[in-house]
């Protein structure tokens, strides 16, 4: 089973592969212990999991298809590299909390804290494939979907950390330090049993330090990966 879009690539066909609200409700929320591990392990195992937002009575959901690991004090590219600050305190625990930051003056990036308290490791979510509430996510992005929209147009919804945050209404004010391991939250991570075929590993992108480290992970062949498709 793969996440790849069908060859016809129409919105109508894509929606046939989306989940139902009942399936989302049955998906098991990821426990805190899932995140109480090193960021590389967590990043790889988050691929294929669901990121779910509750907006009033509506659910929005996407399948995580690309992320990056950041390794705390030993990683020059990590926000935790220089130690704990009022901005990055969430990274230092407990695991399973949302760390949201604003970048380039125009978009938010969502991360989840990993490892025991005080460690500073995290995973950055880079892209997701919408599986429920696609129209609402497109509207949040200011996109108008036609019945003949292609996969290339659909990927504008959530192929990139800023796009996926906007699609789910994620902001620092609203979501920073939110518990992603609880349904009492309006933002959580869950497992619906999706099985991956293959993971692609590359160096991280969009950074200037530690650029050679192979800490970016993606579902092979998925159309929603940021940048060029990874086979």
* CATH architectural type: Roll
Shape: globular
The tally of beta strands, per DSSP, is 9
Helix content: 10-25%
Decide which structural class fits the backbone: alpha+beta
CATH fold-level topology? 3-methyladenine DNA Glycosylase, Chain A
* CATH H level, superfamily name: Methylpurine-DNA glycosylase (MPG)
Give Rg in angstroms: 16 Å
Question: Could you tell me the strand content as a percent range?
Answer: 25-35%
The major β-sheet equals: 9 strands, antiparallel
- How widely separated are the two ends? 15 Å
Top-tier CATH class? Alpha Beta
- Number of spatially distinct domains: 1
- Unreliable runs, pLDDT <50, ≥5 residues? 1-16
Contiguous helical run count: 8
Topology order in helix (H) and strand (E) letters:
HHEHHEEEEEHHHHEEE
Topology diagram in text:
Blueprint: H1 11-16, H2 21-26, E1 28-29, H3 32-35, H4 39-46, E2 50-55, E3 58-71, E4 98-103, E5 107-113, E6 121-132, H5 134-140, H6 151-154, H7 161-167, H8 172-175, E7 187-191, E8 199-202, E9 216-219
Antiparallel strand pairs: 1-7, 2-3, 2-7, 3-6, 3-9, 4-5, 5-6, 8-9
């Amino acid at each position: 089973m793969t996440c790849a879009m069908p060859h016809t690539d129409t919105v109508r066909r894509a929606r046939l592969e989306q989940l139902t609200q009942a399936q989302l409700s049955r998906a098991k929320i990821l426990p805190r212990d899932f995140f109480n591990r090193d960021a590389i392990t967590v990043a790889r195992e988050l691929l294929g999991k669901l990121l779910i937002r509750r907006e009033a009575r509506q659910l929005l959901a996407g399948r995580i298809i690309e992320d990056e690991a950041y390794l705390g004090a030993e990683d020059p590219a990590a926000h935790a590299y220089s130690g704990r600050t009022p901005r990055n305190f969430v990274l230092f625990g407990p695991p399973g909390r949302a760390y949201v930051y604003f970048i380039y003056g125009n978009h938010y990036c969502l991360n989840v804290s990993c490892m025991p308290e005080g460690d500073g490791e995290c995973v950055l979510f880079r892209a997701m494939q919408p599986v429920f509430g696609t129209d609402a996510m497109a509207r949040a992005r200011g996109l108008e979907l036609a019945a003949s929209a292609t996969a290339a147009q659909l990927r504008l919804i959530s192929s990139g950390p800023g796009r996926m945050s906007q699609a789910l209404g994620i902001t620092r004010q609203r979501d920073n330090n939110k518990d992603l391991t609880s349904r009492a939250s309006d933002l959580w991570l869950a497992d619906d049993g999706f099985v991956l075929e293959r993971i692609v590993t590359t160096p991280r992108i969009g950074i200037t330090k530690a650029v050679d480290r192979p800490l970016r992970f993606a579902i092979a062949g998925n159309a929603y990966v940021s940048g060029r498709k990874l086979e």
